[in-house]
Write a structure and sequence with these properties.
1 helix, mainly beta, 9 strands, 4-stranded antiparallel β-sheet, about 120 residues
Length: about 120
């Protein structure tokens, strides 16, 4: 099973002050996380998955090498079997996304799309 990187964290997750936070809104899932700025202050940003069909979390102690391979980056898992494992009508046009946060674990999302955080001013 191959993967493609579609986005990378702008700050390493080992620098987080707090762990990631999840929020579910209708068919969207948001993962918020804090990061240290150049001034030493902490700010929050979030990534959003749209058209969410399913999501799962694996604690860092139980992650596979493939999951850890998504360290600080969002991957699309190509030819994933996950959609075929769900009951119900066929799921067309969804992607299997995966991201691993240091000492936290791996979040995997089956969704139609991904929206990265807004670019910081001046970026």
């Amino acid at each position: 099973m191959s993967t493609d990187v579609v986005w990378q964290l702008r700050a390493p997750s080992q620098e987080f002050e707090s762990g990631p936070q999840l929020a579910r809104e209708f068919d969207a899932l948001k993962i918020r996380y804090d990061f240290e700025t150049d001034t030493g202050a902490y700010e929050w940003e979030e990534v959003t998955f749209t058209g969410v069909v399913a999501f799962r979390f694996t604690d860092a102690a139980h992650c596979s090498p493939e999951q850890i391979g998504a360290y600080d980056k969002l991957q699309i898992v190509n030819s994933s079997a996950w959609p075929s494992q769900l009951d119900g009508p066929p799921i067309d046009q969804v992607n299997h996304y995966r991201i691993y946060f240091d000492d936290v674990g791996c979040y995997e999302v089956l969704s139609r799309g991904f929206v990265p955080p807004a670019s910081p001013p001046g970026a």
